[in-house]
Amino acid sequence: MKENQKKIISIKVKLLAIILPVVIVIMSLLVGVLYYISKDIIKEYSENLLDSSIENQTNQIEAWLDENLSAFRAVKQSIEQTGASGQQLQAILDSYYGFDDDYPNGLYIADENGGLIKASASEKTEADPTQSVWYREGLTRWNMGLTNAYTNAEGAKVISASGILDDQSGMIRVISADLTLERISIIVNSYIEMDQARAFLVSSTDGTVLAHHDNGLISTKLSESRDAFLRDIWQKVSQYDFDMVEIDSNMTAFSQIQGTDWVLVSYIPTKVIYSDIDSVRNMMLAIGLVSVILLAVLVERVVHVVIRPVKELIKVITAMTNGDFTVEIKAGSNDEIGVMSGYVQQFIRTMRQMIASIHTVSDKLGEQAGDSDKISREMYEASRLQGQSMRELNTTVEQLSMSVGEIANHATTLAMVVADTKDDGEQVDSKMQETVAVSRSGQEDLQRVNSAMELINVSVQKLQQSIDEVGKASKEITNITEIIGNIADQTSLLSLNASIEAARAGDAGRGFAVVATEIGQLANTSADAVHNIEGLISQINSLVGDTVKQTKESVENISHSNSLVGDTLRTFDSIFGNIDQVGTLVREMIRKVEKVDEVATNVAAISEEQAASSEEILATSESMVRQVDNITSNSESVSKGAEELTASAEELYEHVARFKIGEEAGL
Predict the structure, then answer these.
(1) Alpha-carbon distance 156 to 124, whole Å?
(2) How many CB atoms within 10 Å of residue 183?
């Protein structure tokens, strides 16, 4: 029991071991799913914000360019419409000098001869304007358009808006204005909507950087940069692939400036984007951990409340296993555990009643087993005494048979003698002496016969008394067997009831069921033995009745023979008294000898019948001895069965005594 208790794992521990890992896994999955969903949402939001930012920047640049180009075109159109030249043209150029910070040097004009017209205050110098970038590109268009970035004669990084001026002067002229790249860089870096995002402007034609927060990169080419990120940017721009993409851990967006070959590139490091999601993830992990702890505490309390009635049930069942049915259990809830507790309490009450009933039956069975043992011992002793008496009767009958045999022999001899006397009656005179001798011998034989007949009479009377005692003993045995039969039947009924109760008890009554089965088998064995004894006693009573009848007939025959022997003895006395008158009474003697012959014949026949009857009595006596031995053996078996029944009753009492059911049940 102790080893089994050591191996027991609490249901509370099992439930917590199952629930907590599941909760942890669910929370982890939830945090992971929410993290990736949030990451995708933030990424999409960042992409949208970056796209919105670059679009806003593009609009700002396009608006700035359009504004400046519109102003340049208005000046160009005014000059062309008015046909200004000389002082008028100079006045117009002077008016635009310092007019706008985007083009502080104002506008200037170069002709095909290399002449340069500029504002009076402008310090712009060109050795050969016709070889400048703005002049060559201006010759390609009527409307003013923007050139690529370049370094002018003063060493400033600029872009120019230039176009052919049709002022009707008869010369090819190009009007132009310089826009500083620093101004464009300010625009590019000033309209970024995302923190820590960067933007730069690049030419898609040759990869020249037009604007950048790092002024040292302006006018450099991306393809020649040492920065892998910039080289990857140029690869995308050169292929005119302007889709948003992540390049070297930077989310990068592209936007082409309308009317130019410029491409605005805006980027932000992904770690900046995901920094918020990392903080969200950490917060979610903290919340998940706190939730797991709270759930663990809640589950532990709930499991404790649920398991507490189960622990009470375990205590009650453990006490019941140890045989203590005095315990009580309260079914305080209406759930499955409460219902189970109610049934356990009902089972305890049923077991109390059953065990109390078994106690009562066990006590009665013990008393009846003791009575059965006592009766079986008395029956065994009676059968033993009966056997001894039957053996003595057998010896007496054997002696009687021997005596009757001797009588038969003597009667036969007497008949032969009487026959000889009849034959020799005519020679009585010559044979008188022989007759006297024979008469003496006959007298002695008759005396011995008389004595033997008296002994036979006494023996037969004793035999009759013994047979009467056998009859009385058999009646007592019959009564005893009836009592044993009733006890066996009652024991069988008790065993059947005990088996039924044990079957109702289930596993707890299994041992008691085995004992009840053994008691039932013992009761059946006792009943069978009683039936056998009754059959044997019935045979004995029948044989005793026949023996009594034959014994009475033998007594009557022996009495008659004794009377005849007495008459013969008296006759022999008369013979001796009248020996002197033999001669005169020979005829009378012959006549009487004939009568004696008849009597001797009858005596011989009777003696033979008595001998046969004695042999039958002897055989019957021997059969009775064997039957009595069987009765003794069966009585001994019944005694042993009674002893086993007593032992079984004691064992049943010991088993039942293990159970405690309280004082209200009487135990």
Answers:
(1) 11
(2) 19
List CB contacts of 174: < 8 A, sequence separation 6 or more: 109, 110, 111, 134, 135, 138, 139, 162, 163, 164, 165
Mark out the alpha helices in 172-250 (DSSP H runs).
181-190, 228-238
Answer yes or no: is 656 within a domain.
no
Domain carrying residue 52: 14-273
If one counts the domains in the chain, the total is 2
Between the alpha carbon of residue 6 and those of residues 1, 135, 310, 319, 322, the distances in Å are: 9, 101, 18, 18, 18
Asked whether residue 439 is assigned to any structural domain, the reply reads: yes
- Per-residue pLDDT of 106-155, as tens digits, reads 899 998 888 888 888 888 888 888 888 889 988 988 888 888 777 777 77
The runs of H, that is alpha helices, within 8-161 are 11-82, 87-95, 133-138
Q: Which residues contact 420 (CB under 8 A, 6 or more apart)?
A: none
CATH number at residue 133: 3.30.450.20
Last residue of a domain, one of 602, 618, 634: 618
pLDDT digits (tens, 9 = 90+) for 317-328: 887 777 776 777
Look-up: residue for tokens 């009635």?
Answer: 309
Co-location of 250 and 111 in the same domain: yes
Task: Check residue 154 and report its DSSP letter.
Answer: T
The residue count of the chain comes to 667
Give this prediction's pTM: 0.42
* pLDDT 10s digits, 13-22: 777 778 778 8
Return the closest-CA partner of residue 459 out of 364, 328, 554, 341.
554
CATH number at residue 518: 1.10.287
Backbone φ, ψ for residue 206 (5° rounding) = -125, 0
Angle at 139 between CA 175 and CA 102, to 5 degrees: 40
Query: Does 286 map to a domain?
Result: no
Q: Do 133 and 251 belong to one domain?
A: yes
228, 250, 273: which is the final residue of a domain?
Answer: 273
Q: Which long-range contacts (CB under 8 A, 24 or more apart) does 87-94 make?
A: 89/117, 89/167, 90/117, 90/119, 90/120, 93/117, 93/118, 93/119, 94/119, 94/120, 94/121
- Residue 661 token pair: 């059911």
Residues 266, 414: one domain? no
Quick check: is 201 in a domain? yes
**pLDDT confidence band for 163 (50 / 70 / 90):** very high
